Amino acid sequence: xxxxxxxxxxxxxFTIGMFAYASAMDLTADMITKExxxxxxxxxxxxxxxIRAEKGNxxxxxxxxxxxxxxxxxxxxxxxxxxxxxxxSLNLWTTEKTPGEVSRKELGSEKIDGYAVKKYQVSVxxxxxxxxxxxxxxxxxxxxxxxxxxxxxxxVEYKNIKKGAPADSVFNLPQGAALDxxxxxxxxxxxxx
Length: 193
Known about the structure:
The chain is mostly beta strands.
């Protein structure tokens, strides 16, 4: 289970990082994640400073509660969760600039899933390294409908975006969930970067 939590945690941190635009907009969307040759489908829910990200082929999902300054990674199969503190590197942002962003270059305009988008090359400083990725932002809703790394090894795309606040209950722990203190991976607890 720990390996699954670590992998899911890394994807989660990346997904949340892409929401530089999202906290200003309430929505529900399908989330398509590609990692190498593996494609996973899931859902994303955003309500103000609360986010829930689900990956369709795993019982593990993630909730950020910006209103409480915490996030949970929940294992629905075991009805357990790990908890972490929302830090500046895992925060919900309402500005167009991604935290740690050192450059943004507009590359042109395209259409993705019916949205007119602007494609950007964005470089973000994370710790001692700088990561560069592509970001496609829908011009009408100011939302990143797709993000991909430069070499095409991974991407996250949002489709069937529905505006409107999901129910608050989507952002709560499941009934009877127990805190799992044995499985919290370093990537979620802040150690081992």
